[in-house]
Specification:
Helix content: 40-55%
Strand content: 5-15%
Radius of gyration: 32 Å
Largest sheet: 7 strands, parallel
Distance between the termini: 91 Å
Low-confidence stretches: 907-920, 926-950, 958-962, 972-983
Length: 983
């Protein structure tokens, strides 16, 4: 911080202080409504929702769904009335929460709710109740009826948060849906999106958007227009996961043997020596490994060696471009990506591990053949590569929301990126109670061995003193290595990593008990608090779960359909109200807890009240013990690349004013230290005669670590920004294609658009076949014949009289007349359906091909840098040319098919529409593959379509099904010939 910054801060106060000055009066105004709202009955409280909605519509002068939010003036008008209602609406939510969950929003939580409503990011420390904070902004914005999306990092949190807060929303008449409860692309999911509030993961929302832009009927779309999203763990979703695009793909033909063949030669290659600037020392090896940038590439010597090993004449020749790409990916798989750090192998599958949360990213695969290279390295079955059908990054997906906000415990260090990419401001919300945690300086050792031994001795001492300990690691590999050392020191402990995340809730529930030691991979996005003395709510919910297990088993065995249905209803109700019930019991509101059980006919829960009270009393006693010995001790076993991940680990201790302590144990052999000067410091230590087990501590060294983290953060920001710059090119093209599709889907009649396209195609074709002054009539006849339009030379000669402009006008009119005549030959409604089907099919097929071409362009565009050209500028120029070419191809193919198609009247009842993407579709992201055929799509009878001139077997069928001719109507014709021959 510069001198001027310090002076400015002293005079005007910090940003946090200024934010607090603005937010506090709003919280106080909310408090002023409290006594008035308390007097309302439950029914009167619920009626407030109707009253607020009427006030909103009266202010804007129309139904909210009729409001065009793309107009800035309308958006401001809507936000103005919500701002006016805010204090009273927040007071209503606060009272509903007290009556249903026993929790009252603190004033700082109200301030957090205001920040969320304003479309900003609320940074709130761990344990400050972000889930409850969200209900304030969710309710206020749900009054619009436009839909509020609450986005979480995993399905567990989405379901937990929705069910936990459901009683508040239910009391106020706000409908809530959970995406995880429904199948993708189903009528049930469309119904969920129609509700006031929708809880789901970032992947589910993103994939639903992509799927919606692959449908062939508007009725199959599930999402509404975007209005407002609150992103939980916003740094995890909008920063950590921003580098990986969501991809829906289908199979692509590849030679699997090639991966094994290339994998075989990688161990034969030798790493080259490098100087300080990572430049190869000539003649020392076959490849250069740059660990800082996680990159590896062949040297000239290595190229010759690979050519010899693979028996390839020229590795960089036109015929070998694919081979060199896969050699590079195999090098990365072996030298950059580490097992049990970047990925793990389970049941013969390579599973990616999220470096920020330590969780397995279910369903996600590395792209560009890297995943296959790792599978070859690990000697497991190789799955086919795939071709992209639809893709979008989270950066571009979330920027489509007119209003976006987020919450997390660590956002301030990334404030610049949030603003530059998403135009999101970060507001740091003060804690409800002062933070009492003590953060010690890092303890640094020369070697990992010395670090681990010192760490284990320290933890053994802490456990013997009855202090709970949370040990954070950066990888599954280190997690398991430390576990072995702990067993040697006889330290009883629980292990939490990607291999046993199913036990996460129960492990975290006990992590705050006296003497508990929990060894966990990064705690980011865990969404579960460590409560001193143990978590009585989580333990109480576990007791209720025992009822659910028995009831589910009973329902499964029950033969009577009526009794089975009643049991299923009970299971659903218990699942919905279990947490609210437990919280009411713990807060001493026994009668209110019983009322919930009686009202929802789930009396079985009442039997657990005494047990929950016992659990709570023991937790209180244990909490006092833990507080007396200094609270939760958090120990980091290594620094992460990003400071906020370390801060998230620290933040697990000292919640809600509890005492606590945090410290990091480091070694100069840790990856971050080694890559940023650790070896130099280690040499100095040896020169000074310092032993391996001696602790090294110096302010300069701590500062160096923080600077190293800043460098990595800056580099990662550049990578994400670079990705966005490239994806922005694709995004503009994507929006153009999707808007064309939407026009087709939502228009009853697209004839005007098709006539415009016919005019454009005619204009460009005439320019191509003319010399600028004259047109050869033979070329026109050939062109019309390709459309199956019979025209004689005399008619053509007449049409092209009077110069190019007149000829263009006459020929365009001829084509449009032919097109209009076709519509009169059959029922017009059927014809309009067929032409929409054809248009969508052509768009989908050509867009798929365009994405493939753009992937190829992106892969090789970096080489333009060697010619001193800016790769991004080149990508924009080339990408634009390719997109124009794709659109021209779409329009030419559309006109060709429309002109050639002839529908046989009265030969069908309905037209089947089939997407070009149906079949073999998979999604790359944190969700499972979508069904092969999109659900909810009715199968109807084929329209009988005849072709009026010869069509190639591999050409698209003119019926618009999206299939090749030989697999569609060509097959029908072939079958009829076979049948007639047999007769």
């Amino acid at each position: 911080m510069g001198a001027m910054d310090i002076v400015f801060k002293l005079i005007f106060g910090s940003k946090s202080q200024n934010d607090e000055k603005i937010l506090k009066p709003i919280a106080e105004k909310t408090l002023s409504f409290e006594e008035e709202i308390k007097k309302l009955s439950n029914e009167e409280l619920a009626n407030k929702t109707k009253e607020f909605r009427e006030r909103v519509e009266k202010y804007i002068g129309c139904k909210t769904e009729e409001l065009d939010l793309s107009a800035e003036e309308n958006n401001k008008k809507l936000q103005a009335v919500l701002d006016e209602i805010l204090p009273e609406a927040f007071a209503v939510v606060r009272e509903a929460s007290i009556r249903t969950t026993g929790m009252r929003h603190f004033d700082v939580q109200v301030m957090g709710g205001v920040v969320l409503h304003q479309g900003r990011i609320a940074e709130m420390k761990t344990g400050e109740g972000k889930t409850l904070v969200a209900t304030l902004a969710v309710y206020l914005n749900a009054l619009t009826g436009l839909g509020v999306h609450v986005v979480t990092v995993n399905n567990y949190l989405a379901k937990r948060d929705a069910e936990w807060m459901m009683p508040i929303y239910s009391m106020l008449g706000i409908s809530v849906g959970i995406l995880d409860d429904t199948k993708p692309h189903s009528p049930e999911r469309r119904e969920v999106y129609a509700r006031d509030v929708v809880y789901g993961t970032n992947n589910e929302f993103g994939f639903d958007y992509l799927r919606d832009n692959m449908v062939i009927r508007k009725e199959d779309k599930v999402q509404r227009k975007f209005y407002y999203a609150i992103v939980d763990e916003v740094d995890s979703i909008l920063i950590d996961e921003a580098r990986t695009p969501l991809i829906i793909s289908g199979p692509a033909e590849k030679n699997i043997k090639m991966y094994y063949e290339i994998d075989r030669i990688i161990p034969m290659l030798k790493q080259a020596e490098t100087d300080e600037r990572m430049r190869e020392v000539a003649g020392t090896g076959d490849y250069v490994l740059d660990e800082k940038d996680k990159n590896v590439y062949l040297t000239e010597e290595g190229v010759h060696k690979v050519e010899k090993l693979l028996n390839v004449e020229n590795l960089y020749g036109a015929q070998s471009s694919t081979i060199v790409h896969h050699v590079n990916q195999a090098l990365k798989a072996h030298k950059v990506f580490k097992r049990d750090v970047d990925y793990m192998v389970t049941d013969g599958q390579v599973l990616i591990v999220d470096e920020f949360t330590g969780r397995v990213l279910e369903g996600r695969r590395y792209s560009d053949g890297l995943h296959q290279a790792i599978e070859a390295k690990e000697k497991v079955a190789i799955q086919n590569e795939s071709q992209t059908y639809a893709t979008i990054t989270f950066q571009n997906y979330f920027r489509m929301y007119p209003k976006l906000s987020g919450m997390t415990g660590t956002a301030e260090t990334e404030a610049e990126e949030f603003y530059k990419i998403y135009k999101l401001d970060v507001a740091v919300i003060p804690t409800n109670k002062p933070v009492a945690r003590e953060d010690l300086s890092d303890k640094i050792y020369r070697t990992k061995k010395a670090k681990f031994e010192a760490l284990a001795k320290y933890i053994k001492t802490l456990q013997d003193e009855g202090k709970p300990v949370l040990v954070g690691t950066v990888s599954v590999e280190m997690n398991e290595e430390l576990s072995k050392i702990f067993r040697r020191y006889k330290i009883s402990h629980e292990v939490l990593n990607a291999k046993n995340h199913s036990r996460e809730a129960s492990i975290i529930a006990q992590a705050g008990e006296p003497g508990a030691v929990t060894l966990a991979t990064n705690m980011a996005g865990r969404g579960t608090d460590i409560v001193l003395g143990g978590n009585p709510v989580a333990k109480g919910v576990n007791e209720i779960e025992q009822i659910l297990v028995l009831m589910r088993d009973k329902a499964f065995k029950e033969r009577d359909p009526y009794k089975k249905e009643e049991l299923a209803k009970k299971v659903k109700s218990i699942d919905l109200y279990k947490e609210a019930f437990v919280r009411l019991v713990i807060s001493g509101k026994i009668e209110e807890a019983k009322e919930i059980a009686e009202k929802n006919n789930i009396l079985e829960m009442i039997e657990k009240i005494d047990r929950i009270i016992q659990i709570n009393e023991k937790s209180k006693t244990d909490k006092e013990k833990v507080i007396s010995v200094g609270g939760l001790h958090v120990i980091g076993s290594e620094r992460h690349e990003a400071r906020r991940i370390d801060n998230q680990l620290r933040g697990r201790s000292g919640r809600q004013g509890d005492p606590g302590l945090s410290v990091f144990y480091l070694s100069l052999e840790d990856d971050l230290m080694r890559l940023f000067g650790g070896e130099r410091v280690s040499s100095m230590m040896l020169a000074m005669g310092m032993g391996e087990e001696e602790e090294l501590g110096h302010k300069w060294l701590n500062k160096s670590i923080e600077n190293a983290q800043r460098k990595v953060e800056g580099r990662n920001f550049d990578i994400r920004k670079h990705l966005l710059e490239y994806d922005d090119v694709m995004n503009q093209q994507r929006m153009a294609i999707y808007s064309e599709r939407d026009y087709i889907l939502y228009s009853e009649n697209i004839s005007q658009r098709i006539e415009e396209i016919i005019s454009d195609v005619a204009d460009s074709t005439i320019k191509n076949i003319s010399d600028g002054k004259n047109i050869n009539p033979i070329e026109i006849i050939k062109w019309f014949n390709s459309y199956s339009i019979g025209i004689d030379e005399e008619a053509v000669s007449k049409a092209i009289e009077g110069g190019i402009d007149n000829a263009t006008k006459n020929i365009t009119n001829l084509l449009i007349e032919t097109y209009r005549k076709k519509a009169t030959l059959v029922d017009e409604k059927v014809f309009r359906e067929v032409e929409k089907n054809i248009f969508l099919s052509v768009i989908d097929n050509r867009w798929k091909d365009h994405l493939f071409s753009m992937d190829g362009l992106r892969e090789g565009i970096g080489l333009r840098g060697y010619a001193e050209k800016n790769p991004l500028t080149e990508y924009k120029l080339e990408g634009y040319k390719m997109f124009v070419s794709t659109m021209n191809t779409i329009y030419n193919e559309l006109v060709n098919l429309i002109m050639r198609v002839r529908i046989v009247p009265n030969s069908f009842n309905a037209v089947e529409r089939e997407s070009a993407f149906d079949g073999g579709v998979e999604e790359k992201g944190n969700v499972s593959a979508m069904d092969n055929n999109m659900q909810g799509k009715p199968k109807m009878g084929h329209a009988q379509v005849k072709m009026t001139n010869k069509i190639g077997r591999n050409d698209p069928c003119p019926c618009g099904s999206g299939k090749k001719y030989k697999y569609c109507h060509g097959r029908d014709i072939r079958d009829s010939k076979d049948n007639s021959g047999a007769a």
